[in-house]
Amino acid sequence: MDKHKATLLLEDGTVFHGTLIGKHGTNGGEICFNTGMTGYQEIYTDPSYTGQIIVTTTSHIGNYGVIDSETESDNPTIGGLVVNSFSDIYSRLDATQSLQDYLEQHGITGIADVDTRKIVRHIRSKGAMNAIISSEYDTIEELQKELEKVPSMEGLELSSQVCTKEPYFIGEETASIKVACIDYGIKKNILRNLASRGVYCKVFPAKTAVSEMEAWQPDAYFLSNGPGDPAVMDYAVDTVKEVLELNKPVFGICLGHQLLAEAVGIKTYKMHHGHRGLNHPIKNLITGMSEITSQNHGFNVVREDAENNPQVEITHVHLNDNTVAGIKLKDRPAFSVQYHPESSPGPHDSRYLFDDFVAMIKK
């Protein structure tokens, strides 16, 4: 692959020069980093990363290509990619194409041959901020003008843009359990985990009326992960409030966790630089056990609100910063976590949560 120059410009004026990967062009978004050592394809196809430029902290990216079975959605959803060492050839026998061809095919512009360690340290110090990657513009002034067009993640509603447009089914129609899954940007592996436990899922668009979902007569509801700011998703919070009134089991993951919190009066906030990676330690306060988890979120629930809410019990905490990582309601069968128990390629410490959900439904 011929190497073309590319530039990364951060909102605070910091500039990095490297080489182009993916499609020749310009991509903008909020820059953040993921510390996972593997699973780059799952990261890039996670709808929760919509509108974000991902810095992958693993040194070598692209060496095992891409394969259809490892996608979390139909297309990569990231707004751009930053890597240290990029391989446009791959060695895995069952891979279907190179990561370079995949990124190019889906119109994603990225930059390689930059000091990703330095970039990560900068984000950790200064916080998540907007950035732009370009192989088109020659001057910083031109890049700055393009960067000013990129919307802030705070106050941005994205779920209605990335969710399914029509309902669809996953699992066996003859299954004894039916779960209505509200798609705010759902990952395929969540649905696989539910289906493998004897659940028949019907996945509904984010703005579906509760009456329409109830017409299917589900036994329970699942609130999915997704991108954007939960504080501006009034339509989703109202939906969750209606669902809670049904007194059916409810399970939320990531954005779904934040929406459950908002629905019971717990506010959310934008984090300094978020949690993203496969190595985040969580303590289950109910069992006393710890879990290593996969996480991807830039918003969280206000701990003080959760502690002062008589309706809520905090069930999980993040051991690095003591943020709330899970809650359950005391007066109805509803719980949620801020991390990804379905994580693929791993870790799988938290998959018991799907079993807990199924057991709650069977009660």
Automatic annotation (TrEMBL):
This is Carbamoyl phosphate synthase small chain. The keyword DNA repair does not apply. The active site is at residues 254, 340, 342. The keyword Nucleotide-binding applies. Belongs to the CarA family. Small subunit of the glutamine-dependent carbamoyl phosphate synthetase (CPSase). CPSase catalyzes the formation of carbamoyl phosphate from the ammonia moiety of glutamine, carbonate, and phosphate donated by ATP, constituting the first step of 2 biosynthetic pathways, one leading to arginine and/or urea and the other to pyrimidine nucleotides. The small subunit (glutamine amidotransferase) binds and cleaves glutamine to supply the large subunit with the substrate ammonia. The lineage of its organism: Bacteria, Pseudomonadati, Bacteroidota, Cytophagia, Cytophagales. Its EC number is 6.3.5.5. It catalyses: L-glutamine + H2O = L-glutamate + NH4(+); hydrogencarbonate + L-glutamine + 2 ATP + H2O = carbamoyl phosphate + L-glutamate + 2 ADP + phosphate + 2 H(+).
